[in-house]
Amino acid sequence: MKLDTTKKQIAVLIDPDKTDIKKLQKTIEAAEKANIDFFLVGGSLLLKDNLEEVIISIKKLSKKKVFLFPGNPSQISNKADGILLLSLISGRNADLLIGNHVQAAPILKQSKLNIVPTGYILIESGTATTVSYISNTTPIPANKPEIAACTALAGEQLGLQIIYLEAGSGALNAVSKETIKAVRKMIRVPLIVGGGIRSAAQIETAFSAGADIVVIGTAIENDITFLEEIK
Ligand code: 1GP
């Protein structure tokens, strides 16, 4: 696992659909000034065919690592540094647990990408999200932290190297501190938390509850000055 998880980190998620080159440049420059730690690129559903273009643009403006955050196997690119190889362990959709990975395996073997085997756990967040609809899975109820904790533990026992607690992009409610705490208590591997985080206070809450990495996407897409607040 080549993600540095020795310190608390903030990752900026770039959804290639929700940006253009001009906006992207401004975002990267602001992210550099805020000294964020790395970038994730991807999305559950991409309408534009600009994933590589986005990665290349980030690489031109920043030395920070870029990790793929793929919604499906078509979102693999050698231009990135690594990939969160997501297994959607909160769901029971076989393709997202292992099927897509079988198709991607030979492509990944030929790539130079750092592969980060990731247990991806969707938490119910107040309304349907693109990721819950597209993945055709039921998120874990927000008021059942023990289910999230046992799911994360099972992922760790299966050898997954990092756990990602996801409320969904633009979620109404972020993952609660109770859920983050319960998961943190149960596992030893690093913990990523994302979805619906739109204030510095929420970032602090996630970190103090036990998140190692917090992912921010929509809040920065909507208002680039949020990066100054993060700084
Ligand atoms: C989504 O966790 C990420 O997959 C980030 O979510 O866009 O709500 O910040 P936001």
Distance between the termini: 26 Å
Strand order of the largest sheet: 1-2-3-4-5-6-7-8
Could you tell me the number of beta strands? 8
Poorly predicted runs: none
Radius of gyration over C-alpha positions, nearest whole angstrom:
16 Å
- Overall shape: globular
Strand content: 15-25%
Identify the bound ligands. Answer: SN-glycerol-1-phosphate
Q: Which series of helices and strands comes N to C? A: EHEHEEHEHHEHEHEHH
**Helical stretch count?**
9
For the sheet with most strands, the description reads: 8 strands, parallel, barrel
Which percent range fits the helix content? 25-40%
What's the overall average pLDDT, rounded? Answer: 96
Global structural class: alpha/beta
Task: Give a written overview of the molecule.
This protein has an 8-stranded parallel barrel, surrounded by 5 helices. Helix 1 links the parallel strand 1 (9-14) and strand 2. It contains 9 helices and 8 strands. The chain is α/β, with parallel strands linked by helices and 231 residues long. Helix 1 (21-33) runs parallel beside helix 2 (51-61), helix 5 packs parallel to helix 6 (177-186) and helix 6 packs parallel to helix 7. The protein is 39% helix and 19% strand. The protein is globular. The model has no long low-confidence stretch (mean pLDDT 96). It binds SN-glycerol-1-phosphate.
